[in-house]
């Protein structure tokens, strides 16, 4: 699936698929309500995607998030209900991109399903998957991930990100920092304290990658948040800010864990705040 955002060709690529507990994904929302939007298996798990964004403009080749990667043990793969292999490698080949072509990797946050593919196993040890890329991580996210403080560091796997620092490929960024012209990160907080969204703009067009602020298109609802969110109030607040901006500018929104609706536009709604429109499904 691809879009054209001004000078940017945007490809929505699979970083893998997995099964996840529905109660965790939808938090305080009763199952009798959320199950109408997404069926579950016999273990109460829902089938989710790990959408990544490849953006190319002839000068830069940018990857937003990396999926689960290829380092997980067979036991971990079974636990997460992962599909075989690591789809992102094949997806990149399909759209004519080699690992070496990517010069910029932006990670929304450092949980395993977003940053696992940032590093890979090599004969010499674990190192950056994309050898010519600089990896951009929010400064607060990095501090929390390496802190050892269990109140903020849960969900991180050190092999996914510590080798980036050791290789000299890591760049820490702050709220509203421009990575390359037309590509900006926005520290949202909410899901993790250093979680960041990504905004790509060109020629009065744009695409918003909100990451786990809204895991699926169903999470466009203000109260629909995951149980993993560290700051539920902040997640709910920032949804209104992000979706309001996307709606007012008619920007595309990527739903990074939505298998059936990877990208859409949104509009304001008088009764439901926002609604999904122009679904590319």
UniProtKB/TrEMBL annotation:
Residues 49-249 form the Metallo-beta-lactamase domain. Keywords: Hydrolase, Metal-binding, Zinc. The keyword Hydrolase applies. One of its GO terms (molecular function) is metal ion binding. InterPro entries: MBL_superfamily_lactonases (IPR051013), Metallo-B-lactamas (IPR001279), RibonucZ/Hydroxyglut_hydro (IPR036866). Belongs to the metallo-beta-lactamase superfamily. This is Metallo-beta-lactamase domain-containing protein.
């Amino acid at each position: 699936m691809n879009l054209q955002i001004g000078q940017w060709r945007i490809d929505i690529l699979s970083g893998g698929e997995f099964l996840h507990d529905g109660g965790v994904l939808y938090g305080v929302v009763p199952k009798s309500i959320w199950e109408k939007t997404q069926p579950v298996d016999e273990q109460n798990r829902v089938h989710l995607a790990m959408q990544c964004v490849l953006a190319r403009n002839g000068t830069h080749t940018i990857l937003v998030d990396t999926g689960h990667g290829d380092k997980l043990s067979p036991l971990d793969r079974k636990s997460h209900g992962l599909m075989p292999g690591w789809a992102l490698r094949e997806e990149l080949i399909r759209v004519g991109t080699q690992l070496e072509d990517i010069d910029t990797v932006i990670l929304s946050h450092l949980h395993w399903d977003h940053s696992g593919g940032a590093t890979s196993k090599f004969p010499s040890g674990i190192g950056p998957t994309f050898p010519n890329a600089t990896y951009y991580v929010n400064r607060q996210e990095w501090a929390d991930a390496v802190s050892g403080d269990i109140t903020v560091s849960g969900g991180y796997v050190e092999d996914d990100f510590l080798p980036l620092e050791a290789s000299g490929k890591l760049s820490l960024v702050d709220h509203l920092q421009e990575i390359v012209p037309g590509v900006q990160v926005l520290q949202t907080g909410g899901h993790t304290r250093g979680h960041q969204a990504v905004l790509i703009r060109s020629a009065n067009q744009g695409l918003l990658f909100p990451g786990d602020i809204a895991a699926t298109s169903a999470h466009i609802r203000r109260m629909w948040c995951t149980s993993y969110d560290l700051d539920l109030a902040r997640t709910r607040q920032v949804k209104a800010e992000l979706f309001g901006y996307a709606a007012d500018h008619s920007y595309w929104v990527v739903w990074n864990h939505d298998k059936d609706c990877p990208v859409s536009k949104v509009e304001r709604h008088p009764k439901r705040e926002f609604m999904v429109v122009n679904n590319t499904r």
